[in-house]
Amino acid sequence: MKEYFKVVTLKTRWFNRKSSFVFIFIIIFLLGVFLRFHELEEESLWVDEAFTYHYVNLGWKELVQILSDDVHPILFYALGHWWVEAFGNSEVSLRFLPFLFGSLSIVVMFFLVHELYDWKRALLGMLFFSLSYTMILYSQEAKMYMQFLFFFLVGLWFLIRFVKNPSGGNLVVLTAAHVLLLYTHFLSFVVVLLEVLVYYGAYLQQKNRGVEEFPFKARFDLSRFGLFLIILTASYIPWMRVFVGQVQYLLTFVLKEKFLLKFGFDGFYYFFAGAVITFILGLWALYTIFCSENKPSQLLKLPNINIPSWLFILSFVLFLIFNWKNADYYFGNVTYIRYLIFFVPLLHIFLAAQMMKLPRKWFVALFVVYIVVTSSILVEYYRVDGKEQWREAAAYMQDTVGDDVLLFHTSGHTWWAFNYYFNGNVTQVRLKYDEPLDSLYDGLRGKEYAYLILSHNFRQPTFFNELLDQQYEVVDKKEFIGVTIYKYNVGQDK
User: What is the pLDDT of residues 18-31, one digit of tens each?
Assistant: First the structure.
């Protein structure tokens, strides 16, 4: 009888524990979903989202053609095309797929961490990921970054499963996730390189040191992993010609215009150096997943300190601070983190794993600091308008412009962002660097005013101002976040 009650008691405790775990899981998930959906349509589309709006409304032939001169693969825009056909072009609709992938990533994050460690670390990593300002921001942006991150997390999860058990089922999911990853963002090649280095390094460790060095039972199957890489390569052949052109565009335009002109040479140097250091430390920390637990630190008197993980955490936090200090305005503090976005969940994984090793008082102190800092950042995020205010700029012009001319610089995304909100029927001219302005001056004759509309994204913000200033007088200037409108009196020359 006593044995019976003992068994019942153990089963009851297990049930209560499982119920508590499920309850916490649901709360964290719902919290993450709420934070990602909250004020989803509050801010207007900014110029990068205007790209998405324009691309998803193109026909298939036009879409493939225009992406041939861009840096992004087709999958995100293809899904977006089908989505807006069904649900329209509202801000919520354009941002819903990133929101959906961002929400699903919370669940995948839990299973990934659970695959590596245990349910306690899984819940903690899931919580950090749910509260992450960066993850929330990109879940509310009509771009492909959260779709990219979702497939990355699924791919990493099944890579770990594949290491444990190289079965056909794990191989299929691993391959499918990475094929979808490749067609979502060009940074996928960096991810694949990272995973290949980690996988092969762990294989060599097992070969040289033995299975006992691993925290879990590893079964490396180089033939099946090679098959995975062959299929992955073959799947990208249809897009390879386009990819070569995209690499050229990336090196000649994006690298020069976006980085060198944005940061300056010194700024770019520090950005690039920080990115390389973060990548190396991230690779090292990821590699330690396949290693046995470190010996207790005699110096710090702390158990199982994983130095690579803490160095990666420190380097990435410093990298975030660098980006924040180089921001044009509030939104820009994480703009360039998107190029290392796959390291953000790794930051949360390693932080959760290492915090659980700390003594209770150290854990509580660090946890409280994390929650306080994160909450402060999120309050500021929802309180302050951080994206370019094209909705507000268009509304202002709607009430202001008469029989005038609107002037835009040649960058098409500015024009798309403005006209997403503007409904007026006025003359609009897109200025180009390489065209003489004599024809423009002639076209302005007979008009009283012209409005020059510039985005913060304009790489030479004074170029057209200086040309127009030679001929006309600025009579008004209106500034919004990321948008500036100059009013010129073109009815009278200087």
Answer: 778 889 999 999 99
